[in-house]
Amino acid sequence: MTTARDVFAETNPAFCCVVFAQFSLAYQQAQPAERPPTAALIYLVLPIAISEDLAPTFDGCNKDTGLAVWLSRNPKVLAKLAKKVNLTLEITTAAVKFGCVTGTLRLSGDGEVESALKKFPASVTGGVAGAALKRARLFGAWAAAMGSPRAVLEALGVSV
Q1: d(C-alpha 135, C-alpha 67), whole Å
Q2: Global confidence as pTM
């Protein structure tokens, strides 16, 4: 049986905006200062959270797994990550713009991207999109636990 993917739905600015909102909220909640993530980290979210080839690497993971452990278990994550980030630059930028225009995301003067949504309806977080949103939340918690955006970027082998 052939499985079809709806690439247009996955790259829809509204969907991507919700993915970023989930990442941002998880990032904020995972640290005492509750600071939002920097825009540089937002560009890592889509290649990690909506990538179906990376989806199995999240099996058995939770917030306590951590980015370093996840990467040590799955070194293939780093193989083409920089390329995937570059391929999703335009989609990410469009989704952040969409989120700011609709009030779903807020971009601070310091370059932080905050989720204006604090709760998400089950209809949004469940279903087909639920797995990608869960991966975004896990990645958000792991990124926050790294202590700084620079540590996350270095662990993933990417630069801005």
Answers
A1: 12
A2: 0.90
